[in-house]
């Protein structure tokens, strides 16, 4: 067998980079038979073992996927409960968010949670700084939630931001750019490559538009590193995201609460609520934390199970009976 790395995934076929160049490959029958879900198939960034170094006589066969040191995954689009691996074996995940209409702290918290869970190191990249008039204020907001994470600022008009990004790229390192469509990921990659390798598209003022890239790609950079380009994620959902790291400030405060099972609502001795009262923590951040916790609890449940879980949560808190009655009233109104 020969070592290769998946560079492009297109349905059931893969492009694999080997020591002799790029070849087209498909998975072996055994690998497909043993696969239990999408996560058991190759993804962009995977190191794989193939049976040949050329494909002139037919597609190469992928027989084995080497152990992944990191994976970036999301719930498959639509209603499927399966996970979809967006990229594998990433060292640094650049979370891109523009400083104009795309700026959304709650969305950033979601990306940070999943980035931490991937085992890659997250770095926040704020793009389109030339379109922002209050950069310092936005930087302060981002720094307040991206605890322990480097934050970079870029603009299409200057090289400073691109130089900062390139400092994270070295021989043998793999990076990925993630974020909504139209925030400048392809522009960043083109700048790092010093060429228009990826097509970019103009979008409207609301940062809405068609995806600038339609399939994941692994690209070798001049400095020896590798970049994985991923399409914009419109249906970002949590699976096993690491909220403890993304909300380390709340987790630390929660350790000081009088009760170990404090829900940070009306319990006496709640250190989290006290921090909000003193202006040390924003109420919006706590609500975002709770919302993501609930979303994680509901992952993989059907509609009946979700309603049961809601009732369980109502009865577990203070005033549970009253909340349950209100819930049933609202449910009956919708019928």
From TrEMBL:
Keywords: Cytoplasm, GTP-binding, Hydrolase, Metal-binding, Nucleotide-binding, Ribosome biogenesis, RNA-binding, rRNA-binding, Zinc
CP-type G domain span: 80-236
Pfam families cross-referenced by the UniProt entry: RsgA_GTPase
InterPro entries per UniProt: G_CP_dom, NA-bd_OB-fold, P-loop_NTPase, Ribosome_biogen_GTPase_RsgA, RsgA_GTPase_dom
Domain EngC GTPase as annotated: residue spans: 88-234
Keyword Nucleotide-binding: yes
GO MF entries: GTP binding; GTPase activity; metal ion binding; rRNA binding
Record-level GO BP terms: ribosome biogenesis
Coiled-coil features, chain-numbered ranges: none
Protein name: Ribosome biogenesis GTPase
Gene source species: Desulforamulus aeronauticus DSM 10349
């Amino acid at each position: 067998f020969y070592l290769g790395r998946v560079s492009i995934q297109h349905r059931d076929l893969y492009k694999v980079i080997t020591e002799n160049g790029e070849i087209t490959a498909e998975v072996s029958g055994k690998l497909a038979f043993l696969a239990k879900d999408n996560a058991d198939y190759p993804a962009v960034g995977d190191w794989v073992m193939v049976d040949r170094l050329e494909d002139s006589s037919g597609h190469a066969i992928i027989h084995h996927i080497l152990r992944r040191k990191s994976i970036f995954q999301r719930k498959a689009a639509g209603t499927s409960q399966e996970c979809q691996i967006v990229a594998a074996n990433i060292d640094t995940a650049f979370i891109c968010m523009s400083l104009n209409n795309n700026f959304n702290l709650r969305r950033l918290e979601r990306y940070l949670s999943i980035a931490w869970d991937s085992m890659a190191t997250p770095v926040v990249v704020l793009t389109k700084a030339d379109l922002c008039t209050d950069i310092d204020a936005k930087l302060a907001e981002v720094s307040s939630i991206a605890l322990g994470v480097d934050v970079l600022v870029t603009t299409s008009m200057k090289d400073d931001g691109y130089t900062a990004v390139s400092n994270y790229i070295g021989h043998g390192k793999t990076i990925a750019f993630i974020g909504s469509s139209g925030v400048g990921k392809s522009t960043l990659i083109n700048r790092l490559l010093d060429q228009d390798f990826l097509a970019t598209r103009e979008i409207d003022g609301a940062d809405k538009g068609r995806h600038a890239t339609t399939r994941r790609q692994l690209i070798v950079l001049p400095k020896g590193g590798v970049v994985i380009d991923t399409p914009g994620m419109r249906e970002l959902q949590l699976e096993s995201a690491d909220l403890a790291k993304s909300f380390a400030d709340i987790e630390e405060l929660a350790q000081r609460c009088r009760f170990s099972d404090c829900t940070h609502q009306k319990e006496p001795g709640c250190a989290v609520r006290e921090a909000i009262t003193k202006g040390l923590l924003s109420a919006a951040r706590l609500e975002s934390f709770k919302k993501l916790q609930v979303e994680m609890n509901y992952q993989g449940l059907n509609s009946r199970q979700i309603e049961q879980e809601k009732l369980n949560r109502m009865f577990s808190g203070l005033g549970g009976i009253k909340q349950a009655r209100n819930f049933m009233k609202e449910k009956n109104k919708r019928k």
